[in-house]
Amino acid sequence: MKYHLLEHESFREVLKSREEIKKTFIRQEQNLTHKKEKLFKNKDLTKWGYDGPISDFEKLHEKLLHKKESAFTYMLQKESADLEV
After folding, report:
1. pLDDT, tens only, 24-40
2. Which residue, of 27, 56, 63, 85, has the fewest CB within 10 Å?
3. Structural domain for 57, as ranges
4. How many domains does the chain divide into?
């Protein structure tokens, strides 16, 4: 019986830890999205934090300034990758 109670307590601790990690992830994701929104509105591509070849970026310049979804994939790439890990 005592073992059974300890098992339930351990499970509760795991769930609590999982919930805290989930909340932290959501908060970080929201902060990153907010930063990207500001960058998109400012339209200064030099501050987007793109890590790839600049030639790719230059080819898509006009599209990126008008399509938020596409632009977000080019923004803050290091921060986005860190969040996904």
Report:
1. 999 999 999 999 999 99
2. 85
3. 2-84
4. 1
Question: Residue 1 in 3-state DSSP?
Answer: coil
Do 25 and 83 form a contact (C-beta atoms < 8 A)?
yes
pLDDT single digits (tens) 43-69: 888 899 988 888 877 788 888 889 999
Instruction: Give, in order, the Cα–Cα distances in Å from 50 to each of 28, 35, 68.
Output: 19, 14, 15
The torsion angles phi and psi of 12, rounded to 5 degrees, stand at -65, -40
- Contacts of residue 83, defined as CB under 8 A and 6 or more positions apart, other chains included, come to 25, 28, 29, 32
What angle is formed at CA 78 by the lines to CA 36 and CA 44, rounded to 5 degrees? 40
Within the chain, where are the H helices? 2-42, 54-59, 61-66, 68-74, 77-84
The rounded radius of gyration (Å) of the Cα atoms in the chain is 20
